[in-house]
Amino acid sequence: MNKIHCAAVAAALILIAVSGLGYRTALDAVSGASRKHRHGREDPVYLLGLPLRSKGLADSALRAAVRAALNGKTARVSGSPRLRLTCEWGDAPLERFAWTLKKQLEDAGFRVVLSSCSSTLLRSKALAGQSDIFIAPRRTILRSDIERLSAIPLHLPGPPEGRKRP
Q1: Of 1, 89, 114, 166, whose CB count within 10 A is highest?
Q2: CATH architecture of 45-155
């Protein structure tokens, strides 16, 4: 009975190892992670947040003006207030969108400082209120922090039809 049990375990391990040859690691084979998931090529879902702890957006009128400017509505502010916009580096669509938001806010009269950083630093900056506006991939912000950071889902447009993603 013991030999049969050992043979079954060995056969299961061999099956797992063989099925994982197309994967980068054996853990991916066991967990079921496909190449699509490992390389992050699923539909891009991001979060746009205006953290409540942000000192730059402590004034509710200024926060409302930023929301209006981000929604594409005409919002003019006086005094040219400075905003810190933070995004995660290494994500080209996200960085392009950050530049677009920076231009929108500057057209509304804000001075915008755009910075990019790692996902860990971005999350800690947002939680500490060191960023007035942030744009981050959904995987960066914990579910428990989404409401605290006033983050909303943001779906960036994918590549044009007929053109494949790299």
Answers
A1: 114
A2: 3-Layer(aba) Sandwich (3.40)
